What does this fold into?
Amino acid sequence: MSGSYFAERLGDLAPLSDAEKAALARLEERERTLRRGASLRRENDRVGELFIVRKGMLMASMLLDDGSRQILRFLFPGDLIGLSGLAYRESPETITALSDCTVCPFDRAAFAELLAAHPRLAALVIVNSQIERAALTDRLAALGRTSARARVAAVLIEMRNRLRMMDRSITDAFVLGLTQEEIGDATGLTAVHVNRMLRQLEEDGLIAREGGRVHFRNEPALAREANYVDRYEKLDLSWLPPAR
Amino acid sequence: MSGSYFAERLGDLAPLSDAEKAALARLEERERTLRRGASLRRENDRVGELFIVRKGMLMASMLLDDGSRQILRFLFPGDLIGLSGLAYRESPETITALSDCTVCPFDRAAFAELLAAHPRLAALVIVNSQIERAALTDRLAALGRTSARARVAAVLIEMRNRLRMMDRSITDAFVLGLTQEEIGDATGLTAVHVNRMLRQLEEDGLIAREGGRVHFRNEPALAREANYVDRYEKLDLSWLPPAR
DNA sequence: CGTCAAATTGAAAATTATCAACGAGAGTGG
DNA sequence: CCACTCTCGTTGATAATTTTCAATTTGACG
It folds into this structure.
């Protein structure tokens, strides 16, 4: 019972030593709560802290000159926020709570020390960031080369899978927790068009909706349309030395 | 005269010790040449090696089910290829030479050893991958939320800046080295529409073209339209311990 | 000279955005 | 409990952007 969500995430990649678990646990000693809609960090804010998500859902987004918004990524418990703070003085993205949230803030310097003291954890942090990178490139390809309908389907599947990682009881029905405007900001569409695409998916028998709940009625077809690839699978960490 | 391009890249971020330089140089002991159009690696290929670009230009792309292609990133000398190979058994992306190229292959295990032996280099690798990540999110926002014209302008500026990193004599005129189809695959547009956008930029006096050469005639306006942010600037590595 | 990839152009079609309006439901203050 | 306001979802009509299709044209090169 380390209580460390980040250790759990990295531990899914490779077994951790007690010393490593203890080091990770120190990152989550403090807590901070956020209400839905609150911003943890705004674009161009000075960065000094990183965070690990403990509870709830957040998003990373960028604001464009014309006022439109692009959601880059959804953040769930165990996710690391602000790794870009290791490189930049100012945050390249805005982090906003999509539900009431708890996050664990820790200092950039503390994280740097941890990386230096535990090279194997540094390697796992690199691996973890590569998984995120793969998810980012999938989204990129979706925005560039797939239809509105496919992009909306992809968001539905992605959200279900991420929610399922925390709660295995979720199978084909779940509470989405996003407004249609937010889906639009993630997929590069207008809220109006997202609405039409959801309706279309429903009329075609791929999903059902009631309130905020989504029900997958034909998941294989949905996954096919969405070009979906699970980036938390097919990992290969055989090169990693065993924990000491 | 380390001759190591990757050491030069990381050395731009922070001064390196001789031991660190020597370790990085060992990654570039072998060489491999590629002709334009050749694939260094295909999607779903088994990965075992990583590469550092020494000469020429390559691209990372994904192929979608319908046969369309999305270019994720352009690769220039000093760039590290295949960091995702640390996480995955199979490559999530295809790497193709856009010009005749030289790359330096090295084994995943050798890289893992280097990270373990030089924690400070591991930190710099993380920083370097965060810079790439920021560039990726910029492209994502561009695809999701900007016009075709803005996306084409962004590719022009990005290419000029990357070329300029290698050759400071390049200012406002350069050989693009991409077909209009390739620009389309990077921007999520058809070659036909890329052509129209280039023409429009030319007619509006923002650029001039002759053969494969592009000339910026109004760079501020071009940068404004493209929403351009230089992700190799505004870095802050003050948390990094000094080289030993 | 012939060939082939790449660039160019016009016309029509498809996709997606914009604008405008309305309805349902959740809070809120009186 | 009742208006009132707000956000969110829904729908229709119209406009803008981008794609598709179909020719040409151009330039490099064997």
